[in-house]
Write a structure and sequence with these properties.
The structure holds three protein chains of three kinds. Chain A is α+β, with helices and mostly antiparallel strands. In chain A, 29% of the residues lie in helices and 14% in strands. In chain A, the strands form three sheets. Chain A has a five-stranded mixed sheet. In chain A, α2 packs parallel to α6 and α6 crosses α9. Chain A is elongated and about 65 Å long. In chain C, α2 packs across α4. Classes of the chains: A alpha+beta, B mainly alpha, C mainly alpha.
């Protein structure tokens, strides 16, 4: 089998003036992923290639990068599906480069945190020291389940045309999580969460280019979450009122 | 102002623009033959039928508000410094007022101004 | 790539993120065209305010003036001017129809509901429901422009 041409964008901002593309020959094998190829190049050709990875099975979201021009997870992209001859690996767009393929996700996580990505309850005491459970029906679960699969890899945000220029825009990941928690039947923080997104760099800077959903490796469909969020921001009404959130359910004293 | 109010304005002007522009396109080529539609006599008689003047004025306002608000959105997405954001908002209002005033002047003079040869 | 402090290099796509949809989905191309046609239409409208003002004698006119209107008609009513009009009809119909798709999508009307997902993942929001309307926008724009061309160039004027 012919070797794979693996082209990696090499760039150390501390030392280098500009990025350069370096080609490595990697022996192909069946089922080889781009991550496998990169690890081969790092282990046997050049130990200084900077890359980040962990689980190798599309669960951790560490190895997001631009592969042949499109944001993908290196571990979840087979060499064969790219034609099997040439693979070009570059760091994700829209994130600062630390070195080679390693990008800085710091501001991305800050934007995630800024949308209050957790269940908010009015009774903080009950939330901290629960006396029962907050129940959810299967129907209520299906409204948010797909959005919970987000692994925060950053691919959506690197594909987003608004993020390309607007530093204050939360980005598809954070906006989708804002919807995910506001639409959760157990949540009481929807009104505050959507009000915080109703500004000139909030949810309305999304124009449904849909690239986030196109590149998402987990089927989260951020574009769907954001569009569903918009109607609530427009009316100022969260998906459900505070008093419609699930009540605390306590197991009956007897009968268990 | 809440951004959602401005977005609602953008949606409403969009829907109105679709209807008004459709009428405008039909008037200019289908309802009247093009050469008739752009002849001085036809336009003058249409203007002096008050309804058409009101239609043109509505088209003017709706399209310019939608267009300049759209540019405002694009400019906000382009740069985010505080002075930029402030001047973009001020500039949008000024641009809308100036262009609507200019276009309205044409409509008002066409309806009420004394015709000359 | 400029330095961003802490030894990191800024790597935002900038305007190429707006203008270059290559490698991405059909909706991304529609996004680019919506933005470009919007700006083009506004530019045309501003010019159109100028030429229509000649109906009342130009920017500083005082009332309907046949000679002024004849003057401006002599400038804009030619093959080049008519070609511009055909292009305007093309982009206006696209922008309007695609805009209706965007309003319906952004209000969550034509995207379907969240549901359990299966491999291989196919995003619900990028399916035919709204995508068909992009095709409708393209087809209507081409038909409208062809009609305008027949009127302006085909002797139907």
């Amino acid at each position: 089998m012919k070797d794979l041409k693996l082209v990696v964008q090499r760039f150390d901002p501390v030392k280098d003036a500009s990025p350069k593309m370096v080609e490595y020959a990697v022996p192909k094998r069946e089922g080889m992923t781009v991550l496998d190829a990169l690890l081969y190049a790092r282990d046997y050709v050049d130990h200084s290639i900077g890359l980040r990875f962990s689980c190798r099975q599309a669960s951790c979201g560490s190895c997001g990068m631009k592969i042949n021009g499109r944001p993908r997870l290196a571990c979840y992209t087979q060499v064969e599906e790219l034609g099997g001859e040439k693979v070009v690996a570059q760091p994700m767009d829209n994130f600062a480069i630390i070195k080679d393929l390693v990008t800085d996700l710091g501001s991305f996580f800050d934007k995630h945190k800024a949308v209050t990505p957790r269940l908010v309850r009015e009774d903080g005491e009950e939330q901290e020291r629960p006396t029962g459970e907050y129940l959810m029906t299967p129907g209520e679960l299906s409204k948010v389940l797909q959005f919970t699969y987000c692994i925060k890899c950053g691919l959506c945000t690197s594909s987003c045309p608004t993020v390309a220029t607007d530093e204050r825009y939360p980005g598809p990941q954070a906006l989708t999580q804002a919807y995910r928690y506001s639409a959760d039947a157990r949540d009481q923080g929807g009104a505050e969460r959507i009000a915080a997104l109703d500004n000139s760099h909030g949810v309305w800077r999304c124009h449904f280019a849909g690239s986030c959903s196109y590149v998402c490796p987990k089927g989260v469909d951020p574009a769907l979450g954001i569009q569903l969020l918009k109607r609530h921001v427009m009316t100022g009404k969260p998906p459900h009122a505070k008093d419609e959130a699930s009540k605390v359910w306590k197991a009956p004293e007897s009968g268990r | 102002m809440r951004e959602s109010r401005l977005m609602l304005l953008q949606y409403i002007t969009a829907l109105l623009a679709v209807a008004l522009v459709a009428v405008h396109l039909l008037t200019q080529g289908i309802i009247y033959p093009y050469s008739t539609a752009i002849s001085f006599g036809t336009i003058l008689s249409l203007y002096r039928n008050g309804l058409y003047a009101i239609f043109l004025e509505a088209l003017l306002v709706v399209v310019l508000v939608h267009g300049f608000n759209g540019v405002r959105i694009i400019l906000h997405e382009w740069r985010q410094t505080a002075p930029w954001s402030r001047w973009v908002d001020i500039g949008t209002v000024v641009a809308i007022v100036a262009t609507v005033a200019f276009g309205s002047k044409t409509v008002i003079l066409a309806v009420f101004g004394g015709a000359s040869g | 790539m400029s330095s961003e402090g802490g030894g990191k290099a800024r790597n935002r796509r900038g305007l190429s993120g707006w203008l270059n949809p290559y490698h991405y989905n059909f909706e991304r191309w529609a996004y680019v065209f919506q933005r470009v046609t919007g700006i083009a239409i506004l530019a045309y409208v501003i010019g159109h305010l100028g030429d229509t003002s000649f109906f009342v004698g130009g920017p500083i006119g005082t009332g309907p003036s046949q000679s002024s209107w004849t003057f401006i008609s002599g400038i804009v009513e030619n093959s080049f001017g008519h070609l511009i009009l055909v292009l305007v009809v093309l982009v206006v119909i696209f922008h309007g129809t695609n805009g209706l798709r965007l309003i319906a999508s952004e209000m969550g009307l034509i995207l379907g509901r969240p549901a359990s997902i299966e491999y291989p993942y196919k995003p619900r929001s990028l399916r035919l429901g709204q995508r068909a309307l992009i095709w409708a926008a393209i087809i209507l724009a081409v038909v409208g422009a062809a009609w305008a061309a027949m009127i302006l160039f085909g002797g139907l004027a």
